[in-house]
Design goal:
The protein is an alpha/beta fold. The chain has a domain of about 100 residues: Ribonuclease H-like superfamily/Ribonuclease H (Nucleotidyltransferase, domain 5), CATH 3.30.420.10. The chain is about 45% helix and about 25% strand. The chain is built from four helices and five strands. It has a five-stranded mixed beta sheet with strand order 3-2-1-4-5. The longest helix is centred in the C-terminal third of the chain and has 26 residues. The N and C termini lie far apart (about 50 Å).
């Protein structure tokens, strides 16, 4: 468990999750709790997205959305220290860039790497589906976003 206790500053808390359902309809969700306890929920999704892409999108969109600066803790599936995660992301971005530099996943890995360098968040790993309220809520919202993508696709097919 990572504890961040900056002197004189409060921490941004972010819970994220991604989901992918039948036919790879993907959804993501992020719950951002600001230092003043205000909360924002971000969700989105797209057709043809795998679960990992949606997990990455949730983290990327969260970090892009926070305009203020301050210590940030992201509670997610990513396990390990920020340094290990940064190393993994650099390796993944190079691997995907070499294979297909314009693929959505390649772009996300590169973007996440840049955001990690800029914002320097700390990752707090929570086992999925373990009853953590923030992650349970993010999981539900991500599934709902994926279901909405699927519903919109079905509507468009019949129209």
């Amino acid at each position: 468990m990572v504890t961040v206790t900056p002197v004189g500053k409060t921490v941004f808390q972010i819970h994220t999750d991604g989901s992918s359902i039948v036919h790879r309809d993907g959804g993501w969700a992020s719950i951002i709790t600001y230092p003043d306890n205000r909360e924002e929920v971000l969700t989105g999704g797209r057709r043809g997205a795998c679960n990992m892409e949606m997990e990455l999108t949730a983290v990327v969109e969260s970090l892009k959305h926070i305009k203020e600066t301050g210590p940030t803790v992201i509670t997610d599936f990513l396990q390990g220290t920020s340094e290990n995660i940064a190393f993994f992301i650099r390796r993944q971005s190079m691997k995907h860039r070499d294979r297909n530099p314009k693929s959505r996943k390649s772009v996300l890995w590169v973007e996440l790497g840049k955001l990690l360098e800029e914002k320097k968040p700390v990752f707090k790993w929570v086992k999925g589906h373990s009853g953590n309220p923030g992650n349970t809520r993010a999981d539900t919202l991500a599934r709902q976003a994926a279901e909405q993508v699927a519903a919109n696709h079905r509507l468009n097919k019949t129209a």
